[in-house]
Specification:
The complex is a heterodimer.
Chain A: E1 2-6, E2 11-14, H1 34-43, E3 52-56, E4 60-64, E5 68-74, E6 77-81, E7 85-87, E8 92-95, E9 100-105, E10 111-116, E11 149-150, E12 198-200, E13 211-214, E14 217-219, H2 221-224, E15 231-236, H3 245-253, E16 255-258, E17 266-270, E18 285-286, E19 291-295, E20 298-302, E21 309-310, E22 314-318, H4 323-327, E23 334-339, H5 342-364
Parallel strand pairs in A: 15-23
Antiparallel strand pairs in A: 1-4, 1-11, 2-3, 3-10, 4-9, 5-8, 5-10, 6-7, 6-9, 8-13, 12-14, 15-22, 16-17, 16-23, 17-20, 18-21, 19-20, 19-22
Chain B: E1 10-15, E2 18-22, H1 29-44, E3 50-55, E4 59-64, H2 70-83, E5 97-104, H3 112-118, H4 123-130, E6 135-140, E7 147-150, E8 165-168, E9 172-176, E10 179-182, E11 187-189, E12 192-196, E13 217-222
Parallel strand pairs in B: 5-13
Antiparallel strand pairs in B: 1-2, 2-4, 3-4, 5-12, 6-7, 6-13, 8-11, 9-10, 9-12
């Protein structure tokens, strides 16, 4: 069990996207940076769909009431144990009971992920376990509060704990679905992985009273460099031709600043050139995370918790590999748009999936 | 419009996992009926790789499943559109009628009196007009289970409130512009609230989770305050 000592600005349990619910008005949801969430679970040698904790850049503190193997992924936080020992992201670490893990915001990135061996217990909703903040359903039902107790799916029946029905126990046990754990995370993983995607990192080997074991390897920097990317590639949107050609050109040449009112529902952009709204009337149609709508008050990139239908003209659609990039953009940061074809977008997606599959097999071999 | 004359949509790939079939950009029950016939025929055709088909006022959005791209589906969708015949789909079976019990006015419909005043009608007349017609469900979206309804008598059309409410209770029945509808869950909203229903139109535990489906019809039925 993990106790929330400081919940941060918005910490929620998330997992994969919902694709069935969209016909019924249910947002796709899921981890905003699905790549970091996936890698976090892979580092623990378990199913990539297990529930993880998404943390928006802000001070957080958690106390572990049991020995726990974890991984920290994502960006924008500096992690430390018991206020003294610094903890690396992108590797597997086992913390001893009573450890206190704290995160402090740092520049570069906006969302971090805390993954635990076995995954967090989470409330199912539709076909996934992510939190829908608007509906108050799934995952942790709401953003975490001080005093919440997060339970971990047990790896083995021997570790089954008695149900602690305290007031702060927001996760109800009867609705928990146990996930298959692909690998035994308790196996000894101190070997160097001889693989180009995972670089040896012997320098940061930590031994202390609080960390019983830390993997000597981590995910390579090449794979995590996407957070610094500032170009967002978009497919032409269905209403692109509604806009004036030269105004679209100016829109694409603009640099856009992320507005502070952005959240999991939508990323608002400011300081660039917004094309004139077409006078044609638009009927509401289906929209997705990554749909770039033009409104009179500027462009909005609909994000993971966006509504499922919208009535603003769609100038473009962010290619799926760049959604994790957007998840890591803090208010005030700049982005640029660039056109991409559907063929290129699919090639990027394929090569991304191939890289992740390589990492998965490299980790499972060791 | 001939109901069974085949209308041909424009087919576009709109993301790595979605295709859009778009008919004329109009709100028409005849066209919509054929869009739902097309949806049924498409699902019956059992094309591999489709995870869902979502109707809107004038389109169908087709989502591919995780292992299939929109580009892979495109040729099959194109040949389906060439070949399907609306006459083969029984459109009588496409929708059901829901009677939605509504408590009008009072604490459940805080804007009824004000709306009546704006419209120079009595609150009783607003209720009688609102319950006099059958509404047609074009699509579900915006928030979970929310039905976009057509058929609000023009005399009741009224632009949204100047100041939207931060919280509109679940089950609220309101009027906004040319639309009337039900808030399935608590949400912010700018509609004039004239009543409330106890009908659970969003049921997260059920399959499907939305009580009302595109192609269904709705009739509001007045009930007493208890």
């Amino acid at each position: 069990m993990i106790e929330v000592l400081a919940p941060g600005m918005q910490s929620t349990i998330q997992d994969t996207i919902r694709r069935n619910g969209i016909a019924y008005g249910i947002s796709m949801g899921g981890a905003a940076d699905i790549k970091s969430a996936t890698l976090g679970n892979m580092l623990l040698g378990q199913s990539e769909t297990l529930p993880i904790l998404e943390i928006v850049r802000s001070p957080v503190k958690f106390q572990f009431h049991q020995d726990t193997t974890i991984s920290l992924t994502g960006f924008g936080m500096k992690w430390s144990l018991n206020h003294e020992i610094s903890v690396d992201s992108w590797k597997q670490i086992t913390l001893k009971k009573d450890s206190i893990l704290s995160g402090k915001p740092i520049q570069g990135g906006f969302r971090s992920y805390l993954c635990v061996a076995g995954g967090f217990e989470a409330v199912p909703f539709d076909d996934a376990h992510g939190t829908d903040l608007r509906l108050g359903l799934g995952g942790s039902i709401r953003a975490l509060k001080k005093g919440d107790l997060l339970k971990i799916n047990v790896l083995d029946s021997d570790f089954e704990q008695s149900f602690d029905a305290t007031e702060n126990h927001i996760l109800k046990r009867p609705s928990i679905q146990k996930h298959q754990v692909a690998n035994d995370p308790n196996q000894n993983q101190t070997k160097n992985l001889n693989h180009d995607q995972i670089s040896a990192n012997l320098d940061s080997k930590i031994q202390s009273d609080t960390i019983s074991r830390s993997s000597s390897w981590r995910i390579s920097h090449e794979l995590t460099s996407y957070a610094a990317q500032r170009t967002i590639r978009i497919l032409p949107g269905p209403e692109l031709s509604w806009f004036n050609h030269s105004e679209v050109h100016r829109f694409m040449k603009s640099s856009w600043k992320i507005d502070s009112k952005s959240d999991r529902m939508g990323i608002r952009l400011q300081d660039g050139f917004t094309p004139t709204m077409p006078s044609k009337e638009m009927l509401s149609t289906v929209v997705f995370p990554g749909t770039v709508q033009i409104t009179a008050s500027g462009p909005i990139i609909l994000f993971v918790d966006a509504q499922t239908t919208g009535g603003y003209p769609r100038i473009g659609q962010v290619c799926s590999v760049d959604l994790p990039v957007l998840a890591q953009k803090a208010p005030g940061e700049e982005i640029f748009f660039e056109w991409i074809s559907i063929e290129q977008a699919l090639r990027l997606q394929e090569s991304e999936q191939a890289k992740l599959a390589q990492i998965k097999s490299a980790i499972s071999l060791h | 419009m001939m109901v069974n004359a085949k209308l041909v949509p424009k087919i576009d790939v709109i993301s790595e996992f979605a295709l859009n079939l778009e008919w004329q950009p109009i709100i028409s029950r005849d066209q919509h009926r054929q869009i739902l016939q097309c949806k049924k025929a498409l699902l019956d055709a059992n094309i591999n790789g489709i995870s869902s088909v979502i109707p809107t006022f004038h389109s169908l959005t087709i989502l591919s499943d995780a292992g299939t791209s929109s580009l892979q589906l495109q040729p099959q969708i194109e040949s389906f559109i060439d070949q399907w015949n609306p006459a083969d789909v029984d459109s009588d079976k496409l929708g059901v009628l829901h009677e939605i019990p509504v408590c009008y006015g009072g604490i459940f419909g805080p804007d009824l009196d004000e709306l009546a005043e704006i419209k120079s009608l009595k609150p009783r007349e607003i209720i009688d007009i609102h319950t006099s017609v059958e509404y047609y469900v074009y699509m579900i979206g915006f928030i979970a289970g929310f039905p976009y309804l057509g058929g609000l008598p023009e005399v009741l059309h009224q632009p949204r409130r100047n100041e939207p409410r931060v919280k509109v209770p679940a089950g609220s029945v309101g009027i906004g512009g040319a639309q009337t509808g039900i808030y399935p869950v608590e949400a912010p909203g700018g509609w004039h609230l004239i009543g409330r229903t106890s009908a659970q139109i969003f049921q997260p535990e059920s399959r499907p989770p939305a009580l009302i489906q595109p192609g269904d019809r709705i009739r509001f039925v007045e009930i007493n305050h208890d």
